Here is the input.
Amino acid sequence: MNTSSQTAVAEKAIQSERIYWPQVIALLLLDISVIISWIAYHEYQPQVLYVFGFAEYSLPFTVWQGILVVGTPALAGWLADHQLKKYGKRLPIINIGINVVAMIFMAVALTVFFQPQGWIRWFVPVFITGWLISMNIFRSPAISLIERFVPQRLLPAVLALFVLTFDVAYSLEPIIVDILSFLGGPITFAVGGILIYTSGAYLQRSFKKVSDDKLGIGFDNNTNSGSSRFWVVVVVSVVLGIYTTVIFKFLPTIYNNVFQFGEAWLNGKFIGSGIVIASALLSVIIGKYINKKNIVTIAVIGANGCALIFAAIILIQDPIALMVLGSLLVIFFALLSVTALPLALYELSSGQTIFGIGLFYGLSEFADQGYAVLLEIFPQ
Here is the structure.
């Protein structure tokens, strides 16, 4: 082997172990913008429906919302995979989704500000539907870019940062909601549009700064058989969604009843958020030790451990026991949350990655959307 060949091999080896942090940070910023936008949507959607006289349609709209949130990511992923296979690009569908979301945010901001009456108010549900669809169009193709920026070996460790961001943001939702309430509807929607557009533009700009032939060298994105095992993606995403919903929606009530917190600042919601934040922080540490060989075992341990702890919390209504079980839940939920998305990626063939990620994100919302529908049918 001559000197030039050795240099090329060495350079490729270095590239295969490189994390493109500016691009990863751009993805992370886009994900944060999406999370904040979702929190804003959940805060103001009922108010918008009420102000414009659509409160009586709350149940059918919640069902329609669930269908869009669960189904759109997979459909968008399928279209993006087709586009990637045909044209070799996935950025156009990301660009379209981001631009549409930003425009709809601004349109809703103006609509909420002026509060028009008459026939024009019927544009409100159209805007909301368009927002739901466009928000779910670009996230899966955007997150799938992670395989271009991160070596496969380091994927769990890097995705742990996304887990941390997601869990901390939703755990701080009460604080974010207070800020949104202070800003008011029009400003909130306008800021949401600016956040999405700015973070999306930064992602596009950072992506163009890297030569495409240097990306994805360290990521062998294919299964041993060359085909996807979608059943793994379905199981992992649904289980993660159910467990997350249980922690945020059901555990606070149990802890409130057992500890009798009442209206104190330390209550069940605070404990639920604390469990998720602690799990997210722990997942950053655990992610460094997860690889393709042990990821299935760790995910199974995490899922089964969470199930056993949930059962114990329901059966053992004792304060000390709940404190111990809550501490154990931090560990097992961290094991599950840090392995879920990397495991899904490992089980997807190279031509179905974006569809698989869309399936993952959509089905992970199934439990939460189902819970929202049940609340409409059986109000608390």
